[in-house]
Amino acid sequence: MTAKNHFLFSIAAASLTLGTIDPFVLLLAGAMSLLPDIDSSKSVIGKTFFPLSRLIERHFPHRTLTHSFFMTTIIAIGAIPLAFEGTDFYFAALIGFFCGWFLDVFTKAGVSAFYPMSMARLVIPANPALRLSTGSKNEWFFSVIFLALFVISFQLHSSGGVMQIFTSLLAQPTGVAELYLAHSNKNRIYVNLSGQTSAGQISGKYEVVSLLSNNTFLIRRDNSLLLVGDSGCLHCHVRSDSAKGEIGEAIYVSTQEVRLNEQPISKFLDYFSGREIQVSGELVLPNEEINIPNSQMKFNPIALTTNLDSKSARLQNASLEDLLPLSKLTATGNLIVKTITQ
Amino acid sequence: MNFKTNSCYREKEKNLIVETLLGGHSILVVGKAGIGISALMKFACEELERKGLMLLKVAPGSIKQILVFLAFQLALYAEDDKLPTSPRLQKEVVEVLKYGNFVIVIDEANRLSIAVRSWLEELHENGQLFLLGAKPALARDIFLKLPRMELKPLNYEFIRKIISETAEELQIELTPADVATLQERCGGNPMLARRVVREYQIGLKPNALDHTEWINGTPFLIAALICLTAIRFIGRGIGDTNLYIFGGMLAVVASLVRLFMFSLPKGSKKLGE
């Protein structure tokens, strides 16, 4: 194979396997793919490092020492310092080098992949008539394929990666859950949802507020929360027919723990006033009458439990508005507050 | 056994043959076409003659031809003499062989007929020493009974020397890059090493590489693809439906590639067949 094909194949392989389009990582993979051909002074890299390539070709046949698992192991050890710069750089160097020689197994002469244990040439396929001649016109065909692979990989990773596109095509809640897990700390996540509620069909674009499991999540609709799951989810408020995740505007998310010790909740609300927050945790409240509207048609962020001499409230993704009915009370407990700023 | 080369690249094997025959044992040298059996036998014979053994070098042929050949070498008859009938000649040759310290040397013994092989087997059972060279021979009669030495592909350093020697003979100049590239086409076979230099001189770039030192990587490729289908089980294990479906699709792709690769026409694996 020519240097051009080694380069294209390696950057496509590195991009697909590492899931990156970082130009430095891909350039490293491309450059490393040329390295195995240093055993020939007629190759691009051989001409660049002529004394070294001449030395190698005086002692070894073409495609033996530098086209082997043995040399790949040496590169894997030698490239360890690159891992301190980033594991992507390390693996790009390895993938680039490996692809650089492995592509030659599809040529007529193959490579001595098991050198120095065996000089036998590794080839695919076995029939020489079906293998490629280096520099033949057929190589253009492969150049186009490798370039197309790279373009596809670039497009895939610009759109979030292979799995994300795949899950998006399937339009299942698990895909939205994965997208939320991957991006919710930096972006708002929306879902283009169509499904069934007990009140009828629901369809539209909603913000995903939180995950409850790997295939159920909460959405906000008209200031209330709804639990969304797949068509088999019996306790969900929305059973989705189609749920496609979408990455929204950038946000900054911070999380802090707040401890209340018989302190008024109004103070807590004043402190976070004007901010978008989600509160989770458990509060012990005085045994007074509290009126919190509960409904089976939506997800209730505050669940009250009455004890002998007190009440406790379990909060889950409660907003400031949800906490307003508790504002006149004093409470004790620990809360996790997630603050979202644009 | 007519070679231009004066260098023996299989010293170890040559010494082993010499020691074996001096120790009173016969030996069969086998290997693929062009691997260097004839050259090795030539150098071994020279060494054996220097050590004082009497060699009877016989070309493969009919039993009559071999008997005549042996009779002349054993000086039983001169070329102008009228020869007796085959059974009588056979008896006379066997009688002489019985009382002399002779080694019968036959290259390309795989071309011998069953009748000759049976006779040689009989001689071997009576203590006659043999040095036989053969292409991968059938494991039967004398080929089964003789200790067998199988020649491996020649070290690539020697192949490099043979290429350089041949280039010198043909008075052509090869750069180290040319030699390294030509070596790719030999696979440790000295006969092919000479041939590729001649092809280079003529300007041929043959597509078919005749050496047999190949490892078919197709099963490795299929195995690697099948390993990817483990994603399916990971998906199932962690309850990720998307991963499960994706892994299932990879399994289908791996099966299709397997089906495609194994349906490709297969090339011949044996040199000279």
Give the gist of this structure.
Chain A is built from twelve helices and eleven strands. Chain A is of the alpha+beta class and 342 residues long. Strand 1 (121-123) of chain A pairs parallel with strand 6 of chain B.
Order of helices and strands of chain A: HHHHHHHEHHHEEEEEEHEEEHE
Estimate percent helicity of chain A.
Answer: 25-40%
* Radius of gyration over C-alpha positions of chain A, nearest whole angstrom: 30 Å
Oligomer: heterodimer
- Runs of chain A in which pLDDT lies below 50 for 5 or more consecutive residues are none
- Rg of Cα set of chain B: 27 Å
The biggest sheet of chain A amounts to: 5 strands, mixed, barrel
Classify the secondary structure makeup of chain A into a structural class.
Answer: alpha+beta
> Quick check: average pLDDT of chain B?
85
Residue share in helix of chain B: 40-55%
The beta-strand count of chain A equals: 11
State the shape of chain B.
elongated
H/E element sequence of chain B: HEHEHHEHEHEHHHEHHH
Q: Shape of chain A, please? A: elongated
What's the arrangement of strands in the largest beta sheet of chain B? 2-3-4-1-5
Main sheet summary of chain B:
5 strands, parallel
Tell me what the structure shows.
The complex is a heterodimer of chains A (about 350) and B (about 270). With about 350 residues, chain A is an alpha+beta fold. Chain A has 12 helices and 11 strands. Chain A has helices spanning about 5-20, 25-35, 45-50, 50-60, 70-80, 80-85, 85-100, 140-160, 160-170, 175-185, 265-270, 320-325, and strands at about 120-125, 185-195, 200-215, 215-220, 225-230, 240-250, 250-265, 275-285, 300-305, 310-320, 330-340. Chain A has a 5-stranded mixed barrel. In chain A, helix 1 packs parallel to helix 8 (about 140-160), helix 2 packs parallel to helix 7 (about 85-100) and helix 9 packs antiparallel against helix 10 (about 175-185). The radius of gyration of chain A is 30 Å and the shape is elongated. Chain A starts with a helix and ends with a strand. Chain B is built from 12 helices and 6 strands. Chain B has helices at about 10-20, 35-50, 65-75, 85-100, 115-125, 140-145, 155-170, 175-185, 190-200, 220-230, 230-235, 240-260; strands at about 25-30, 55-60, 100-105, 130-135, 150, 215. A 5-stranded parallel beta sheet of chain B has the order 2-3-4-1-5, sandwiched between helices. The interface between A and B is large, with 43 and 40 residues. Strand 1 (about 120-125) of chain A pairs parallel with strand 6 of chain B, so a sheet runs across the interface.
